[in-house]
Amino acid sequence: MKAVGYFVEGARRNKARRPVGEQNRAFLDFCSEHGYEVAATFLDTEDQEPEDSGFRQMLHFLQREDRGFTVVVIDGLGALGQDLGRAALKLLTIENLGVQVLSAHSGREAIRELVGTWADRGEGTPVSEKVRTAMRRKAVKGEVLGRPPYGYRVGPRRRLELVPEEGIVVRYIFRLYLQEAMGIRKIAGQLNKEEIPTRRGGKWSMVSIRDLLRNRSYLGTYTRFGVKVPGSHPALVSPEDFRLVQERLQSRHAAVRERQVVPFLLSGLVYCARCGSKMIGVSRRQKWTTRAGEERSAAYRYYQCESRTNQSTCGYNTQRAQALEDRVRAMLAEDSPAVTRLRRAGNVDSYLLDVIAQGERIEGRIRRSRRQLEELVADAAHGHITVERMKAMGAEIARDQHELEAELTENRARLLAHQTESERRRHVEEMRANLAREWETLEFDALQPALREVIDRIEVDGEDLALFLRM
Question: pTM to 2 decimals?
């Protein structure tokens, strides 16, 4: 049996700093006492970059096929960081590789030591746990948490109460869908045509109609955090009508799920030159019978103005997918004078704004993932689930977290590559030349990100096409 030692400069045990030499001695004594062969040791120093960290090097080592039966030995939980949430993430990342982590200090499984430490914290319970508990108590009383659904407002006792003019619209939407058999896109178009605004004064879309039809609040039942409070507020829809609507939505959703979704190359880049809305990819399959009685079918893919698709507004602005993609490729290859730079948002490069926004979204997802992991460890600490169940569920969260951190590293690298004007111009020009040369050989997963890095925006209306580079 082999053991891997993991040491951290500045790690603490019982609030006292543990020099690396002492961590190493404890590791060697543990191996000698329990009969382990030393396989390797890894060290994290305080000035190391994350991509060069000893922890990451250790993970690469543990993924080797020739590692055999190996355990990881740490001086104590302090070697994984003083933040127990971060320690849990590191532990579950290692255990997800099928490797057990042991504590040299106690000889116990580190994961069980972590759960025990979490349970003993008392007042150290994370704020997120306290807030979640308090919100559950409010939900049991039927008190509103968050923004009320369309048709209701928050009353003086924190209960939902009707907004009469919005309630009429809710009933109208259910009637159009159920009794007049209108689809959600046509309903959105009908409301927009009648100039009935959303609560914020905007236009209705397919998504807003669909979410409204699925909202159980219209049955008079308040639902939050798994708590259901029937009769907490006035209903707008009968249980029978709501059931029929859900059955119809589900049947249509099931039919859609059977389709094979093929992504569109220019998604997120093409805009309608008439109204400024995005052009979204749409697929249609047509079947017909020839005069000879043969059954034939064909698939058609095109980009269509989103405001027409989702809100039934704007005109008929549709582009065949392959034809539009071929035109974009030709413009990149010819370096046409029409290929110019577009500046927006106070002369700030829109690509950089996109990258910064993407980084913020990734960081938000990382924080949410960490909270989920902390709640999972807390459930194990309080006896709601077993440690084995926590490890199984936590492994998936740890995998997601690892992928998100890799995305964030890549995102920061892209920001660094576009720090100066000259660097941006040179980088985009190199990318444009590579795209024109290697278009045929690039796989979709490589071609689409490359296009998004080079192209800022494509505006199209019939035969008119304007392409703007991120230069």
Answer: 0.46
